[in-house]
Amino acid sequence: MTDRPIDPDVDLHVPAQRAELHWTVPAVIAVGGALGALARHGLQEALPAGPGEFPWATFWVNVSGCLLIGVLMVVITEVRPAHRLVRPFLGVGVLGGYTTFSAYAVDFQRLIAARAPVAGLLYLAGTMAAALAAVAAGMWLTRRVARARGARGARRAGTR
To answer: Could you tell me the residue ranges of all domains in the chain?
Structure first.
């Protein structure tokens, strides 16, 4: 046995948890993925891009999904302990189904095929930069809000 902590989302070889994890984790990921994919589809239908046009829907889906994953991971790892199925459902399922880096690659190919290389390169680099910045911003903002709420709660407790 090792001294490293057990991660029930990854360590499926733990005998006491194998039967329970066998169905629940993939099930919540599947349900979350379906919900996330439906949300993405709705946004892509609302903001269609023609040939050679910047694919704003995919851009905003990926950036907003990355912002939300930054928020989620801070909330469930630093702010409040979460049920063991929250991360697979929201992180892997909903946000994994919502974000779409495969469509990002296809959109880039379409821009190049439509002879819009400048838009393609801007999209390629801009999406990655904005997605990484969104994760960092989500984490930073969530930590800031959590600290402010913690300080406010400490002040209230001290005034009673």
So the answer is: 15-154
